[in-house]
Input
Amino acid sequence: MPKGEYKDTPQQRLWGIENLIKKVVSIPVIAVGKINTPHLAEKIIEEGMADFIAMTRSLIADPYLPAKAMAGETEDIRGCIYCLEDCAEKGVPGIGRACSVNPFAGQEYLLKMTPALKKKNIVIAGGGPAGIQTAILASQRGHNVTLYEKDGRGGQLRLASMAPFKGEMSEALRFLIHSLGQTHVKLIIGIEITGKEILSVKPDAVVIATGSRPIFPDIHGINEQPVFDARTIYEENPELRGHIIIIGGGEIGCETADYLSSGSRKITVIESLDRVLRNMKDIPREDLLKRLEQKGVAILTECKVISITKENVIAEDKEGNRKEIKADSIIISVGSISENSLYNSLKENVVEIYMAGDASRPCNLGAAIRSGCELGLKI
Output
């Protein structure tokens, strides 16, 4: 069996089956499934596991993958991250099957790259996926672009790959940063740009891509316990022990439970709706729920946390029954709200101002990149 980057993975086992088939048949064998780089494709063929390679999602993410591979431009390949967010099932409302990393997918007939009619000085506040994507396309069209980011390039995308089985998300950030480096965008990191500073440079257009911030629910006694938002878990890796309560059973809440469920920790996810992971596609949802069950993560649905004490969380079910659940730490994951205060401070003083990504509306990666793409082509 092959060794290296895909050792002991479901894909390795699949290719192993194909290898066994190849040994007993005289017709060509085609390998398919999570093959998203020329290096991996060549390795499978070189090691005699298959005669041909088939790609589907990888060519939706980058239709020019074969041409780039032939030209030796492998760094320019936009790799599929296998998220199944926008390409599976019904895809994206209003578009159909699309792609989280390729904003043109499903909209090739609508989105056209054309040179800017008037060269503008553009300031972009926020270096997450939406801000970076806007900057790339605006620069490629001929605008002078300055991108400000207070922390580090990538926004929340920097954290996404840290969750279990989400390592491939790092490819989305790699490609965005690589593409940004191929432009003339002036990148300024470590500065939280203010409205006054933006006005001082007299830009022709401003894009606010400042992302979102976590929602903290109004729960009685919330200050009685160490309380963290889910983003802090990945950013700061606080030392958590004992009984951990996660309030919110969406994708981030359940992935955080998966991330933390090791050793002696006892984790309970509390969700007010009738099921967790309501917006996750079926295949990853089933996989995640199976892992949580195997790890002994307790999931309470149709329950609402009504108060917090120094030792417990008190939850109430839909019949009004209350239960006390031991808690040593509490994690909040009930959604986010747009961080658009900078936009509000500037909108009366800037003629051409836009919002992108979460700053406009909290959304997933694909929606953020598409919003940046549309702005980059529009300005």
The CA atoms of residues 301 and 315 lie 11 Å apart. The chain has 13 helices and 17 strands.
